[in-house]
Amino acid sequence: MTPKSEEYLSSDIRDIADVKLAPIPAESSDKESSTMVSSTPHPSRLKYLSLGVLVLQTTSLVLTMRYSRTLKEDGPRYLASSAVVTAEVLKIFTCTFLVFMENKYSLRAMNLLLKEEIVKKPVETMKLAVPAGIYTLQNNLLYVALSNLDAATYQVTYQLKILTTALFSISMLGKRLGLYQWLSLLSLMAGVTLVQWPTNSTGEQKVLTVGSQVVGVVAVLMACVSSGFAGVYFEKILKETKQSVWVRNIQLGLFSFLLGFLGMMVYDGQSVRQSGMFQGYNAITWTVVVLQAVGGLVVAVVIKYADNILKGFATSVSIIMSTLISYFLLNDFHPTGVFFLGAMLVIAATFLYGYQGKPANGTVKV
User: What GO terms are given for molecular function (predicted)?
Assistant: First the structure.
């Protein structure tokens, strides 16, 4: 999905939404459980509509981001750090509007809630500084990755965030992985290794806009690690409090905006002072920013109305679409048999990780 876009309103909100939509505890009465289940239907039409939107959003974000970083223009290219900051601002406004809706469109009620949860609880708010900094780094790394890798290779390699998230979940949350999940992680590592396997190509060498393919791969791997840690850290915080997901994301967005703006001024301050923060912005750039900002909301809807297997299906379809479009339209990707084998292993791993086997005999704890 994508720089979400690895949640905070980014592709990593999968873990966040799972917390809010966790099963009802065993201590709850059967009557309460049946009432809640019956009151939250999962319409088939809405389920598949949300999946379709997720596939479209993930694929569009990767391809437009890649296109925007390779497009040749007369003027200066837009700053990736500026795009990250702008996306954070849009996310804050989006979450604020959702809180406004939750409070029945009452400005007074919303202001009281935000003051109570953010201003009067500085310790809880400061806990979000850590994942905010990591997410800011991650989003910038994804721009670096897509400046150096074709969309298909990026999409497949970025699925390593499943592995990093699983490992951090085991070490930080004490989660257990079933047999099928361990097998999926092995398949995932094998698939990504094949995708990155060097080939002796006799055709034209791909022209990279910045750096080399090694830089892109390192950027993706660092983004996977940061995505896994930040997502699990955020999940841990959410489990310890009863705050709304949207309120938490406002807190996260505020820190991300401050840190992102600081990073922009440190690394691109001279360019900002000379040509402005929005230098090089065009319709494609704004499309990338909006897609990155709303990506997490789309994932939240999918989590609510779909399940892990269908999420895996959406991810797999997105990888296939990115590969086809990257080959036929962007003309920056020439697949090999080894790449296809690796991609199939990654897609299979995505499905297998969401498969619910029998936990009684197939559970392994590390």
Answer: pyrimidine nucleotide-sugar transmembrane transporter activity
